[in-house]
Amino acid sequence: MMLPDPSVKYRPFVAVDLPDRQWPNQRLTQPPIWCSVDMRDGNQALIDPMDLERKRRFFEMLVKIGFKEIEVGFPSASQIDFDYVRELIDNDLVPDGVSIQVLTQARPHLIERTFEALKGAKKAIVHVYNATDPVFRRVVFNVDKPQCIKIATDATALIKQRMAECPETDWTFQYSPELFTSTELEFAVEIVDAVAATYGPTSDKPMIVNLPATVEIATPNHYADQIEWFCRHVAKRDSLIVSVHPHNDRGTGVAAAELAVMAGADRVEGTLFGNGERTGNVDIVTLAMNLYTQGVHPQLDFSNITPIMREVEHCNQLPVHPRHPYVGDLVFTAFSGSHQDAIKKGMAERRQHPDAMWEVPYLPIDPLDVGRSYEAVIRVNSQSGKGGVAYLLEEEHGIELPRRLSIEFSQVVQEVAERTGKEITSQMIYQAFADEYLDNTSPYALVNHRLSSEPDSPRVHLEAVIEERGSRETIHGTANGPLAAFIKALGAHGVSIEIIDYHEHSRGQGAEAEAIAYVEVRIDDKAVFGVGIDESITSASMKAVMGALNRHLATHKEAAPNVTAETLK
Ligand SMILES: CC(=O)SCCNC(=O)CCNC(=O)[C@H](O)C(C)(C)COP(=O)(O)OP(=O)(O)OC[C@H]1O[C@@H](n2cnc3c(N)ncnc32)[C@H](O)[C@@H]1OP(=O)(O)O
Ligand SMILES: CC(C)C(=O)C(=O)O
Fold first, then answer.
1. Measured by CB atoms within 10 angstroms of the end CB, which terminus of the chain is less buried, N or C?
2. pLDDT reading at 567 higher than 60
3. pLDDT of res. 142
């Protein structure tokens, strides 16, 4: 039996007739006016709305970030919102230059209560809305268009009158035709023109017209078309601040806001990390950081993003997704090998040219710009390669593996990652490294050594005491350097070792400094690596040889099993 096609119950959006649309040619070159609606639209969508303590913390944070317009609540709807607005005003907690904004329905008793809440405010935005969408007009309000306009203009007239009675406050008026996106465009313009005619904004004292995508219904280009069409047709454009208020029902709230600003909007209402009704309001952090990556300062301070994210999580009692753009716990983290390799090389180049433009592969911004550190960038699991392992050993433990050893060791880590199925921390990597290369002290161990040189000769004589299967032996060798002398001494003792490759470097500074030596040796026709760490470079190199010998005896491991000569080049 064929199931009915459920998609037939949905209507596609009708394109705006705007063949000469200009917005696609625009670029974002300055930030819009930002308004945070976290404490109203965000708050009304919370499982547990904010109490006074959480509201206080949120407001203080928004001010610190640099918001100049903050919708602090719906004071006629809830006692907490009312009390909080009073607290802000009575205790003079709103810094100069910051406007508090409050929302009210277009109903007289709610408007009166709103003005009670705002009495004595220094600077306030009164935001009134009514639903203009045809479905709401029919289903929710049962009004025709003129009646709908009357709801808006009556409310506007009352608000204007109350504002005039309190001239001590620097008032701004804001009107939202709710569900602008599904209101007929001609009607949206008609009702806004009527509201503006009632209020009487001027270019010196404009009003805000907020055009909400209360529910996102179409692709973002459609919203941009609607905004451009509206801006071209509305009567008093130069006396209006056109604001957008995108929600995220289709997951394109950020794109919708950006295109709407390109289409002429001056102001954006949204929330931090996109909390809000249903799928949320547009995320202002992403919008701001998107501007930042285009070389435009957003005029909001997200230079230390993690404490902001934690504070928002506390206030909203909702987690921020670990993959949230720019801020999630995992966004500056690469697990996969080829990404790690490219980041490591990009970071190395950056260290050489710290003032160049940001061009590190896979990282759209410098993690330092949002207070993140490089260490978090590379993490290791079974998807990782040698680059990530080598990066963590180098950055966090000062161990700079030679390339061939790094190939071998990454297989040790891969085996642990696959066995555990978990992330391997840098501490675990170091432990695996120590188990594999540093703790190999039996059956052979170096006890001590003494070097002497022949007068007028580059040759050195080495006398070393080694432990061999529990008993001590003294061995002697002479050669052009201490390591060669040690190899000679071992050979004379019946242990035949040939050095294939050798690297050394120091780790740490001053009295704490130590030397690390890496050898690749051939024993019984097998290549094997050893690593030694000691205060003296000679002892480190001899320990490295002993380590290689012990590893060989224990496992007969090759230098790089399963690795072809080609990959080792
Ligand atoms: C898209 C948005 O986010 S808009 C903001 C939404 N936020 C909230 O609603 C949060 C707080 N709201 C509330 O606490 C309450 O809804 C209140 C206090 C505002 C109103 O409460 P009540 O008077 O009990 O009404 P209720 O909650 O049932 O809302 C429906 C009523 O509001 C009317 N209404 C809804 N919006 C508007 C509006 N913008 N202008 C005029 N009337 C409106 C409806 O017609 C309906 O009236 P009716 O009861 O006469 O039919
Ligand atoms: C009140 C309005 C602006 C609103 O929150 C919406 O339409 O989403």
1. N
2. no
3. 96
pLDDT tops 60 at residue 357: yes
Instruction: Report the phi/psi class of residue 428: left, alpha or beta, with left for phi > 0 and alpha for psi in -120 to 50.
Output: alpha
Ligand 2 mean position, distance from CA 467 (Å): 80
pLDDT of residue 556: 62
| For the CA of 41, the nearest atom of ligand 1 | 3
Condensed to tens digits (0 to 9), the pLDDT of residues 250-262 reads 999 999 999 999 9
ipTM of the complex: 0.95
Which atom of ligand 2 lies closest to the CA of 176?
3
| Structural domains of the chain, ranges and CATH numbers in brackets | 32-316 (3.20.20.70), 337-438 (1.10.1220.20), 444-555 (3.30.160.270)
Q: Which positions make up the binding site? A: 41, 245, 247, 281
Mutate to test the pocket of ligand 1, among 76, 79, 80, 105 (most ligand atoms within 8 A of CB): 105
Q: Pairing mode, if any, of strands 460-468 and 444-453? A: antiparallel
Taking the centre of ligand 2 as the mean of its atom positions, its distance from the CA of residue 178, in whole angstroms, is: 6
With a cut of 90, say whether residue 565 has pLDDT above it.
Answer: no
Query: What is the CA(313)–ligand 2 centre distance, in A?
Result: 23
Atom of ligand 1 nearest to the CA of 128: 39
At 568, the pLDDT band (50, 70, 90 cuts) reads very low
Q: Which residues are annotated as a binding site for Mg(2+)?
A: 41, 245, 247, 281
